[in-house]
Amino acid sequence: MNDNRFDTQIGSVAGNVVTGGVHGGDINFGAPAAVPAAPAADVPSPEDHSAEYHLAFTFAGEQRDFVARVKEECQDLGLDVMYDFDNAVDWWGKNFIVEQRRIYAHRTLFVVAFISKEYLAKPVPRDEFTAAMWRDVQQGGGYILPVLMDDVTVPDELLHPSTAFLRVRGGQPEPATLAVLLNQKVLASLLTNPRAPKGIADIVTDAMTRQSTPPTRTLPPVDAVLAHLRERFDAVQDDVRRLGGTLLLEPGADIWAKVVRSGDVDYELRVRRDRRVAETLVVVVNRHVQFGGEMRDQAEVLRDKYDAEPRIRLRKRGLLPGIAGEPVDLTKEELFDRIWQDITGRPR
Question: Residue 282's Cα: distance from chain center in Å?
């Protein structure tokens, strides 16, 4: 129990056991008092809302760079994250304090609190934490996931001494690693939590069945593109093996495919929804052997009232075969054909 490495089962919060395999971050139980508590903020009355987010982030501005990177990694894994800047337009003209209280108290599966010295000293982050505490008390704990930044200490009235937390020192664990842990926490919750946001049950279904259920209705254009790509990737598993590789297709609503040869990732593709721009996909290609770096493009998904088939507009030079810097509109079938050409047409 005294081991500070995050590679063993080390604690529980209201029945939720914290486990993992992260090197560089450490879990602690003590939270010695150091900063006096701010006055309690008014919190909205409990309402019967379904969760709109998997995670809601609360933090001080001094930690924005690190938190923004965690948010991007979480979104790449298919998680919906409440992050203040993403709501700037929606909250325009509204009382943002009230809007945030509603989310932290009712409309997310978990609140991730990045607690720093600055966080404890500022009234707005403390108000957000108070709203989350109200919900945490109502459901018996496990609602707030504390991430302590560097050497901050937290007063007992905010963080009970028996509450397990993750500490980040010097940027370790890295945002990508922290995002994986948060994703594991969300997936575990979705198996039993009736407040899951509509649509994210698909993530659990994919994780359990390792395949997509054929649609029984007409899908929205973005969903239709993603479903087609997953279906085509499933169909070429044997072809990749015949070419001397292994195709790994991660479960989830979005696409994350890897081609592995001789134990190394040779090719990687991610296609996910752009959560900031409607009807847009983010396409990321990483040719590990050839370049050792990734290429990224925002792909508009176009709808034509005279044609039920969506078209995907790409323009990033070199992203896929035939993309030369000018906009190219592809059907979902043509998009996969370009991807397959990219996988199979390069020298090994």
Answer: 14
- CB–CB of 165/159 below 8 Å? yes
Whole-angstrom distance, CA of residue 235 vs CA of residue 127: 51
Amino acid letter, residue 71: K
C-alpha pair distances (Å), 101 with each of 90, 96, 130, 243: 15, 8, 9, 54
- Residue 161 sits at the vertex; the CA angle it makes with 16 and 12, to the nearest 5 degrees, is 15
SS3 21: coil
H or E stretch at 126: helix 123-138
Q: What is the mean pLDDT of each run of 10 residues along the chain (348 residues)?
A: 32 31 39 37 40 90 93 89 82 81 88 95 91 86 92 87 87 90 84 50 46 53 90 88 86 88 86 86 81 78 76 89 87 91 72
Give the helix ranges, DSSP H, for the chain: 64-76, 96-106, 117-121, 123-138, 175-190, 201-209, 221-235, 237-242, 332-344
Element at 145 (helix H, strand E): strand 144-149
Q: Decide the pairing of beta strands 264-273 and 280-286.
A: antiparallel
Among 169, 159, 165, smallest CA distance to 32 is for: 159
Enter the tokens of residue 281.
Answer: 């996909």
Q: Find out whether 324 and 317 touch, Cβ atoms under 8 Å.
A: yes
How many CA atoms, within 13 angstroms, populate the side-chain half-sphere of residue 178? Answer: 32
User: If you count them, how many residues does the chain have?
Assistant: 348
Which structure tokens are listed for 313?
A: 């507009």
Read off the tokens for 117: 């010295």
Residues 220, 334: Cα–Cα separation, whole Å: 18
